[in-house]
Amino acid sequence: MPFSLTLSSVSLLANPTTHYLRTKNPPHSSSSSSCINIRCSIDNKPPPPRSSSTKPTSWVSPNWLTSLTKSITLAQNDDSNIPIANSKLDDVSELLGGALFLPLYRWMNEYGPIYRLAAGPRNFVVVSDPAVAKHVLRNYGSKYAKGLVAEVSEFLFGSGFAIAEGPLWTARRRAVVPSLHKTYLSVIVERVFCRCAERLVEKLRADAVTGAAVNMEEKFSQLTLDVIGMAVFNYNFDSLTADSPIIDAVYTALKEAELRSTDLLPYWKIEALCKVVPRQIKAERAVTLIRKTVEELIAKCKEIVEAEGERITEEEYVNDSDPSILRFLLASREEVSGAQLRDDLLSMLVAGHETTGSVLTWTAYLLSKSPSSLRNAQEEVDRVLQGRAPTVEDVKNLRFLTRCINESMRLYPHPPVLLRRAQVADVLPGNYKVNAGQDIMISVYNIHHSPQVWERAEDFVPERFDLEGPVPNETNTDFRFIPFSGGPRKCVGDQFALLEAIVALAIILQHLTFELIPDQNISMTTGATIHTANGLYMKVSQRQTASAVA
Ligand code: HEM
């Protein structure tokens, strides 16, 4: 989940700032190698050019306090073996004010795959090494907790299992995960993923006729909200047709979680201040709207389940008229409070919306920059689907398209960093010591872009993942590829999300083709996920192939 930002990562930015990194040197496709191309030798590639950014203005994260924190927290008796990033104040302020993962990448090139960083009020150990990431993620529960993530996003997730810790998390994850079973996923592919994508294609067809420039990032965000609404609640937000206030509310709430992670003074813990500070008023309104919407949907569904006396009768239970996760959870008759159920479902809604939208956005961008990959993907879709809508079985054969999505998630991981906090003193692989209470930032972006881990790390090469091999994940790449995290807190929606993205792109590519509107600045900023700063504008046109029009 992007937010995972929220959930998982909380990127440390105070003000949205744009970074113009990729416009001049966009990733490009090229040669085909047929294995997972993991590099083990050290490559001294020079760091990429500095990105430009505007200065942050947050009064709660002034530079002098960052500097003070650094000298107090880092000066004494550091026997951890972890190099300290000697970031200039300008760098730190850039980190506080911009897309976090970009300066983190620069420092990785300077200090190596593990370094310590004072950022505003906090001191982080930044990890860009797959072995250390594996150790920290796998030891969730015994040695590591979510820590900061839970602190700064509780106002939104309440006790939802995306941020809960300990026995509550164990119990709620155990209750929710069975709802995402195989039969559910195949029903949802047909009834939700395909139908929502077809509706998007219908909308885009109108734009194809007029030749209007379409902001695809916006369209993908609407599509994924409609999908998660139907899949989790059996509710049609219909945001492809009408503006949905939920999209803005989710964005506002996730942004607030990020801001809280860098605020030097957690003034938002004082209730009276939350009633007068405009940023807090806005955040509270957003959360109220999201909660109210979820509560109403639960209440309606509960009435039906009670009236019908419905109960789960088999393991892979799906109600034919309402296959949603909500219906499954209510029919399972698990003892759970109304607020807990609301917070768990809200976790799914938030976690499952923006993340998949961002994956679709960046995959469309990468394909539009790589005509040969776009052509390959279209040919595959035509050959496998023969003009039909995809089924779960078809998805298994859309191997190249799947690799395009995998590769997009390598170059643009959502969220770009994951946070953990050490519960006990520990020694990390490589003999690096951390104390109890240490905040750790796993830079997924760095691991995925590291020339020590990947050959041609900056290039879009879908073929680097063997087409005949398994879909890459954290286990079969030994934590070199961790877009869904790993260990006990790994994303519960990974299969759901991959199916959703593959089906949506397959249906779009089947009927339409797209090209970037020239001369736009496609720059990155972070929300919960990696966003474009100004949208992704494309011209879409109807495809004329026989199978596309069948
Ligand atoms: C491509 C889309 C997605 C990406 C990239 C993604 C990524 C992630 C990541 C990285 C985490 C783990 C965070 C950590 O380790 O701290 C996570 C957790 C989670 N994701 Fe996803 N996610 C996606 C889609 C979804 C969907 C569609 C759902 C729901 C249907 C979902 C539900 C969740 C939940 C509930 C958690 C919290 C799990 C826990 O803490 O036990 N995600 N996601």
Question: Would you give an account of this structure?
Answer:
Its cofactor is heme. The protein has helices at 63-74, 89-97, 101-111, 130-138, 148-157, 166-176, 182-210, 216-233, 245-262, 271-274, 278-308, 325-331, 338-368, 371-385, 392-397, 399-411, 444-449, 494-511, 546-549; strands spanning 114-119, 122-127, 144-145, 213-215, 417-422, 426-428, 432-434, 439-443, 512-516, 524-526, 530-532, 537-542. By secondary structure, it is α+β, with helices and mostly antiparallel strands. It has a single domain, classed as Cytochrome P450 (Cytochrome p450, Orthogonal Bundle). The strands form 4 sheets. The protein has a 5-stranded mixed sheet, sandwiched between helices. The chain has a 3-stranded antiparallel sheet with strand order 4-12-9. It is globular and about 65 Å long. The model is unreliable at 1-62 (pLDDT under 50). Protoporphyrin IX containing FE binds at residues 1, 4, 7-8, 161-162, 173, 347-348, 351-352, 355-356, 359, 414, 418, 483-485, 489, 491-493, 496-497. Residues 1, 4, 7-8, 161-162, 173, 347-348, 351-352, 355-356, 359, 414, 418, 483-485, 489, 491-493, 496-497 line the site of protoporphyrin IX containing FE.
